[in-house]
Amino acid sequence: MHALIIHAPRDLRIEDVPTPEPDDHQLLVRIRAGGICGSDLHYFNHGGFGTVRIKEPMILGHEVSGVITRVGRNISDIQAGTRIAISPSRPCGACEYCQKGLQNHCVDMRYYGSAMRTPHVQGAFRQEIVIDRSQAWPVSDELTDAEASMAEPLSVALHAVNRAGPLLGKRVLVTGSGPIGALIVATARRAGAAEIVVTDMNSLPLECASRVGADATVNIAQTPDALDRYAIGKGWFDVLFEASGNAAALCGAFNVLKPRAIIVQVGLGGEMTLPINVIVAKEFDLRGAFRFHEEFATAVELLNKRLIDVRPLISDIFPYQESLSAFQTAGNRSTSMKVVMTFD
């Protein structure tokens, strides 16, 4: 079968790899669609991010959907032919954090397409993959393969919103409207936020944010002082979701946050220097949001019922044979949002 393997920055190859064999407790899945994530782009463009670097060839990809083609003989609750979204998260289940229900902090996590450990965890941009039964979540007949592949980024957004606590009636600011930021908008709207304002440096992401529920959008590149009116009276917003990973976006939002506002940092962009005096004086609550676990099941249910519609975020679909074009397109935020590849 074919797989998309990264060897070095900009060195992405389509290569033949062995077709896997499932054991009695596993499923063989034909991959149908896969979305290109920000981490995939970091591997493609730079060979990694931060201290995480490619040390050996690695199959990319973790946002995928497919159809079950073979079922292990000890599995009876799901059948071949079932279309599924695949959770790329495989916690060990035995460590301290798994036992406490914090599986996203598993000390022995195996997450598709990750160079965080060596040997690297091979990803899911391939024609076939063997998965555990716990990774398979059936999707509705009405959902396209591309939509089903969005379950993983939606799970990230759901986890971020869960980290913020109740949003009913809250005023929310989202800085950074890439796919995760836009999905946070959709999720916050579903969670009952009274007002959602979104900032970004490009027009297309802001247009997408409006289509999934933002009340107002601000292009910071064009109108850098547009948030100033929200700073009156010690601030306007109850919650900030920082999804850009940009220190200027995070610190620039402090003036428009109310005292005791909750800040959820979702974006990763390197180390930041924070104005601690402001955090102390306004009693901000700074929280991180990393990956997800139980939210994947919720994401699939929301997609199946179209309670969250991700179609406005899917900007381009390429066959995997055109993977270089797909990655180049995905890297241009002014012209694309979520780029999905098909593996038929």
Question: What's the SSE blueprint?
Answer:
Blueprint lengths: L1 E7 L2 E6 L9 E10 L2 H9 L1 E2 L2 E2 L4 E2 L3 E9 L11 E4 L2 E2 L5 H4 L10 E2 L16 E5 L3 E3 L6 H4 L2 H14 L6 E5 L3 H12 L4 E6 L2 H9 L4 E4 L17 E6 L4 H6 L4 E9 L10 H6 L3 E4 L6 H10 L9 E6 L3 H8 L7 E5 L2
Parallel strand pairs: 13-14, 13-16, 14-15, 16-17, 17-18, 19-20
Antiparallel strand pairs: 1-2, 1-6, 3-7, 3-11, 3-20, 4-5, 7-8, 8-12, 9-10
Structure commentary:
By secondary structure, the protein is of the alpha/beta class. The protein has helices at residues 38-46, 96-99, 145-148, 151-164, 179-190, 203-211, 247-252, 276-281, 295-304, 323-330; strands spanning 2-8, 11-16, 26-35, 48-49, 52-53, 58-59, 63-71, 83-86, 89-90, 110-111, 128-132, 136-138, 171-175, 195-200, 216-219, 237-242, 257-265, 285-288, 314-319, 338-342. It has two domains: 2-150 and 310-342, Medium-chain alcohol dehydrogenases, catalytic domain (Quinone Oxidoreductase, Chain A, domain 1, Alpha-Beta Complex); 155-288, NAD(P)-binding Rossmann-like Domain (Rossmann fold, 3-Layer(aba) Sandwich), CATH 3.40.50. Strands 3, 7, 8, 11, 12, 19 and 20 form a seven-stranded mixed sheet that branches. Helix 4 packs across helix 5 and helix 4 (151-164) crosses helix 9 (295-304). The chain is globular. It starts with a strand and ends with a strand. The mean pLDDT is 96.
